[in-house]
Amino acid sequence: MYAQMVKTGVKALKSEAEMSDAERAFQARIDADLRIEPRDWMPDDYRRTLIRQISQHAHSEVVGMLPEGNWVTRAPSLKRKAILLAKIQDEGGHGLYLYSAAETLGITRDQMIEALHSGKAKYSSIFNYPTLTWADIGTIGWLVDGAAIMNQIPLQRCSYGPYARAMVRICKEESFHMRQGYDSLLALCRGTSEQKRMAQDALDRWWWPSLMMFGPPDDASVHSAQSMRWKIKIFSNDELRQRFVDQTVPQAEILGLTLPDPDLRWNEARGHYDFGAIDWEEFYRVLKGGGPCNRERLQARTSAWEEGRWVRDAALACAEKQVRRQAS
Ligand code: 3HC
What we know:
Shape: globular
Number of strands: 2
Radius of gyration: 21 Å
Helix content: 55-70%
Distance between the termini: 65 Å
Strand order of the largest sheet: 1-2
Strand content: under 5%
Bound molecules: 3-hydroxybutanoyl-coenzyme A
Structural class: mainly alpha
Number of helices: 14
Mean pLDDT: 95
Low-confidence stretches: 1-8
């Protein structure tokens, strides 16, 4: 299946001759590192690509609140509970900045939400895995937020102004998220042998799905070539994945945990860690809805939307009343 996607999936780039004058001028602005703003002319595909990526990013932030939300009532201390609550609230905020950035491209919030609920829009594969123990919460902060930052720091320099600017604050907050996760895991690793075993078990389950967060390998990445030409993406999926592995190995050593990959070793010639084969069958299965929690996550989002309808209706009615009052 993976080989088939490699063969058929990747889109060809337009040659210079195939571009219109407007497209050539647009590309020249990108090449000169000028930002594109909402009122600027842009190719339809650039707009579509951004709407797809930013809205899916927003959905990931919001769906990502669910696995951690499961542990708010079970956090082991008041301090950990307060930190977890703050982190989850931050993720909700990230979703809001990102939905707002996507709205500048001409799509409405309702259309984006509808695409999520109907399964047309994706959200990060990582959030379709369950959080079985408290150690999963620390591991998510360390690995999942760590992978998110690796991907998102370059997005601060992406060509679309509202997206790049939204990423500045998001990255600052994600770095706090990663540090709190690492701190929580460090406490477990310095605790009892049972706590350390729990941390190792969480790492064993989250390591490979975290590597999948960066998307398919470059030769199977449908959008990378065009997104990189437009500087929506600055680095490829594989480049970021490699950086993440290189950054994480020494962190695992400090924790005294073993990354679950027998092929992981430093490659002196490359100046990077080599790592084992990723199970891309699993990745595509999760993308198609076959992960352990896909159904549960979408169900939680759609029922939150339905149950919150009265709040949206009340807020709208209140706003309309205020407008009417001001007018009279
Ligand atoms: N999960 C789900 N879908 C994924 C995926 C993943 N980990 N990786 C790739 N895909 C999807 C793509 O969306 C695309 O599907 P589509 O055509 O239906 O949209 C398809 O697989 C092919 O992948 P490509 O490599 O061609 O796609 P992209 O060029 O869009 O690259 C990406 C994928 C690297 C995830 C890119 O979209 C990106 O950088 N997005 C912004 C960052 C983001 O969305 N992060 C979510 C992480 S979680 C998070 O931020 C929450 C935080 O609190 C932890």
